[in-house]
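Blinded run. Sample ID left blank on purpose so nobody reads anything into the name before looking at the predicted structure. Input follows.
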Amino acid sequence: MSSHVQERRSGAQLINAPLPLLLLLLGLSGCSAMDVTVSSSINALNGTTVRIPCIFTSCYKMNAAKFAMNWTYQESLNDTEEIFMTYSKKKGMMPMRSERFGERVMFAGNLDKNDLSFSLSDVQLEDEGVYHCYVRNPPDRIQGHGVIQLNVVTELPPPRDSTIAVAIGASVGGALALLILSMVVVKCLRRHRKQELISEEKMEEEGKLEAEGVAEEGTK
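Blinded prediction complete.
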């Protein structure tokens, strides 16, 4: 059996110790859940340093004597996990010997704030893969688990030029405003012309009526 498989069995899947009856009852009362917050996907530029966060929340305060956690790496979800950082009761968070990462891994979190983040320096294309954050904090009975996909890129996409976007937006907005103004002016002119035509027709009708009235008086 390979050493990686042994590491996964002994470290990645942590075994929870038996709980006292009182703590078990507390767990059954609803205080037995743990949440792990991670970024599902992180992009890192080749050759730079990236921080990979993992923060957990628990119903119980961290007990250094019972707390356990592991960071593991997979090239893909179908590959064996390799432990590269773990928690030691005496030394706290500590990197493990790894041919892949060497001394490029450092703890970058804060245990007092339930922050288990780590930093990876001089990121290489081979570092791309799946990173797992496993956490146990007895008397919580559930193992917390976060999964992060690290993508390593050789160049970052160019930033969007907001100045050009604003200029284009202003030009489009100005043209649209002129178009609306032109339509309003045309509509007003048409309405004014229509009113003039109605007035002229009304005046003609009144003139015809006056002429007819004069003609009738003459015949009498």
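Unblinding after everyone has recorded impressions. The first strand starts at residue 34 and ends at 37.
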